[in-house]
Each structure stands twice: as structure tokens, then as C-alpha cells.
UniProtKB/TrEMBL annotation:
Classification of source organism: Bacteria, Pseudomonadati, Pseudomonadota, Gammaproteobacteria, Lysobacterales
Keywords: RNA-binding
Protein's name in the database: Dual-specificity RNA pseudouridine synthase RluF
Regions crossing the membrane: none
SUPFAM superfamilies found in the cross-reference section: Alpha-L RNA-binding motif, Pseudouridine synthase
Catalysis performed (reactions): uridine(35) in tRNA(Tyr) = pseudouridine(35) in tRNA(Tyr); uridine(2604) in 23S rRNA = pseudouridine(2604) in 23S rRNA
Source species: Stenotrophomonas chelatiphaga
Pfam entry (one): S4
InterPro entries, per the entry: PsdUridine_synth_cat_dom_sf (IPR020103), RsuA_PseudoU_synthase (IPR050343), S4_RNA-bd (IPR002942), S4_RNA-bd_sf (IPR036986)
One GO biological process term: pseudouridine synthesis
Database matches in Gene3D superfamilies: Pseudouridine synthase, RNA-binding S4 domain
PROSITE patterns: S4
Limits of the RNA-binding S4 domain: 4-60
Length: 235
């Protein structure tokens, strides 16, 4: 039997249009000799081609992942950290991992290399554009670990030290999480600003971790692991 494209063979087997066959293949519903193949252009000849009984004819959507960035991981390495092997076992959502989910990923909400916590990696141009344009207007939550001589700490200066372009950022909530850990939550925050505010209050920052962007939280993701952004989650 001469080799032919997988989508053509599947269309012949199902008696359906090639476009429908292509969507089944790209959706991860088709097996060739028992192995899932997601490339419609894959060549088949005598292999057994099967469609999953639970297959749905639907367009493959672009996905967004939430990654727990480890300390000292540079921005240009983060998208490559999102692999099938690094998916968190806590990810119990309804999205079925597909090979195409790991192509064309872009970093949408970065952090400095020295900091850790929630970053966003996405295929969706709408999500990428929203975070690039609106992150400064979106509430974020950070934990900041500090050290130094407690008698020198000027806690009252923290709020006034949160400045951007010479203006104090209003409405930021600051609270103690432990004796050497502060929580900051507010709009317009970023790690450089937090470091400067702490330095102005005679506090030495030893670590910053982002916990939340808008209504989307890091949760219990382990460093270096990721989960899909749920369909009901919004930044």
C-alpha cells in the first residue's frame, strides 16, 4: 500500500471531510498502531489507524500555563521549562495535554532572575497582550523575605517607599507573615520597587516570591512545575 497522509486515510475510514479528520488528529484523538499521532501530514501505509471512541470534533484552543519559577532561572529559559514531564500532579483540570501545547509558547509575565513564584507562559496572543499592557494595573501579591538588624527597621517608611516615577503607589496592603517575611498586595507593584522600599526602611531583601496576579494564584505548585490556566480563571 502506498503511503498517504494520515488525515486523508482517516477521512476515508470515517467517511468524513478532511477538515474534520484533521481536527480529530490535532486534538490527540487518533492512534496509529496504538500510538497517539497529532500530525495530520504524518505518512501511513499498512498501519492500523483508530479513532478514540470519546473523540470530539472541536478546534484545538491555544493554551496558557502557570509556571512556578525557581530562583535564579533567567527569563529566556522559562518557556522551555514547560514540558509534559514538568506538569504538576496537582493539575486536575479538564485540559488534555497535547504535543502542540508546547510549541510557540511566550513568556507573558516575567520576573527578575533572582526572584521566584508565579509567571505566565502562553500561546494565546490575547492573554499575552493583556498581561503586557495591563500588568501594572492589575493587583499582584508578593512575599518578601528580609533580614538585618530589627532595631533599625523603619516599618512606617515601607508604604511611602513604594514609588513609581516619584509618586507613591496608593492602596498597597502590607502585613507581616512571620518575623522576617512581609506580604505586599496591590496594583503597580514590581520586585524592584519592593527592594527599594525595603532598603529605604533599612531592611535587606533576601528573596521575593510572587503569589498572585489578579485572581490567579500560584497555589501549591512546586518550583519548576506548571499547570494549565483553567477556563474559568481570569487575571
Amino acid at each position: 500500500m502506498l503511503p498517504t497522509r494520515l488525515d486523508k486515510r482517516l477521512a476515508e475510514l470515517l467517511g468524513c471531510p478532511r477538515g474534520e479528520a484533521r481536527r480529530y488528529i490535532e486534538g490527540g484523538w487518533v492512534r496509529v498502531d496504538g500510538q497517539v499521532v497529532e500530525q495530520p501530514q504524518a505518512q501511513v501505509s499498512t498501519e492500523t489507524v483508530e479513532l478514540d471512541p470519546s473523540a470530539r470534533d472541536e478546534k484545538t484552543e491555544r493554551v496558557t500555563m502557570l509556571l512556578a519559577k525557581p530562583v535564579d532561572a533567567a527569563a529566556h529559559t522559562l518557556s522551555a521549562m514547560v514540558t509534559p514531564e514538568s506538569q504538576s500532579p496537582l493539575d486536575l483540570g479538564s485540559i488534555r495535554p497535547l504535543q502542540r501545547h508546547f510549541h510557540g509558547l511566550q513568556l507573558a509575565a516575567a520576573l527578575p532572575a533572582s526572584d521566584s513564584g508565579l509567571v505566565v507562559v502562553s500561546q494565546d496572543p490575547l492573554i499575552i497582550a493583556h498581561l503586557q499592557q495591563q500588568l501594572a494595573r492589575t493587583e499582584q501579591e508578593f512575599l518578601v523575605d528580609i533580614q538585618g538588624e530589627r532595631a533599625m527597621w523603619d516599618v512606617a517608611r515601607l508604604q511611602t517607599g513604594l514609588k513609581e516615577n516619584g509618586r507613591t503607589i496608593p492602596g498597597c496592603k502590607i502585613s507581616w507573615q512571620s518575623e522576617q517575611r512581609l506580604r505586599f498586595a496591590g496594583k503597580g507593584l514590581h520586585p524592584r520597587m519592593l527592594r527599594e522600599a525595603c532598603a529605604g526602611a533599612s531592611m535587606q531583601v533576601v528573596g521575593i516570591r510572587r503569589l498572585r496576579i489578579g485572581r490567579v494564584s500560584l497555589g501549591k505548585l512546586a518550583p519548576g512545575s506548571w499547570r494549565y490556566l483553567g477556563s474559568d480563571e481570569r487575571f
